[in-house]
UniProtKB/TrEMBL annotation:
The keyword tRNA processing does not apply. One of its GO terms (biological process) is negative regulation of DNA-templated transcription. TetR is the repressor of the tetracycline resistance element; its N-terminal region forms a helix-turn-helix structure and binds DNA. Binding of tetracycline to TetR reduces the repressor affinity for the tetracycline resistance gene (tetA) promoter operator sites. PROSITE patterns: HTH_TETR_1, HTH_TETR_2. GO terms for molecular function: DNA-binding transcription factor activity; transcription cis-regulatory region binding. It comes from Paraburkholderia bryophila. The keyword NADP does not apply. This is TetR/AcrR family tetracycline transcriptional repressor. Keywords: DNA-binding, Repressor, Transcription, Transcription regulation. SUPFAM superfamilies: Homeodomain-like, Tetracyclin repressor-like, C-terminal domain. It holds the Pfam family TetR_C_1. It comes from the Bacteria. Residues 3-63 form the HTH tetR-type domain. Residues 26-45 bind DNA.
Length: 151
């Protein structure tokens, strides 16, 4: 049996997603693609939901890489660019928006969200308004709730 790494499983799952779509993605199909038994996948992911979450995070890590500028006067331009970057990330894979909408952010995603909230706060937003603005501009921030970061 072939040895596989967690990142290889998630990457292969994204490749399979592009071919079969979210409805056609199954752990059985993914295991066949990787040349392993289905049970092997559960060594890396406790269930399909965890795999889908990792896939969504990987899409953002690869395709939504815009950082925050130093100049807060540029916040409106940055905000629009951030929303466009997020949209491009969702369009990078078949059913990317559906994949993303059905998952919750992990710690790495929160680490990427917090500087964006802080940037908007430094531009004059309250923390809750900054969170709501990011939430409204794109579900990348789907785990944020007014008044604080979500789980």
């Amino acid at each position: 049996m072939a040895k596989i790494r967690r990142d290889e499983v998630a990457s292969a799952a994204l490749e399979l997603l592009d071919v079969v779509g979210l409805d056609g993605l199954s752990t059985r199909r993914l295991a066949e693609k990787l040349g392993v038994e289905s049970a092997t996948l559960y060594w890396h992911f406790r269930d399909k939901s965890a795999l889908l979450g990792e896939m969504a995070s990987l899409v953002l890590a690869r395709h939504h890489t815009i950082g925050v500028p130093e100049d807060i006067a540029d916040w409106p331009v940055w905000f629009a660019d951030n929303a466009r970057s997020f949209r491009r990330a969702l369009l990078a894979h078949r059913d990317g928006a559906l994949l993303h909408a059905g998952t919750t952010p992990n710690q790495a995603e929160f680490a990427r969200i917090l500087p964006k909230v802080a940037y908007l706060v430094s531009a004059g937003f309250s923390e809750s308004d900054a969170q709501m603005a990011l939430l409204a501009a794109g579900p990348v921030h789907r785990g944020l709730r007014a008044g604080g970061a979500g789980a």
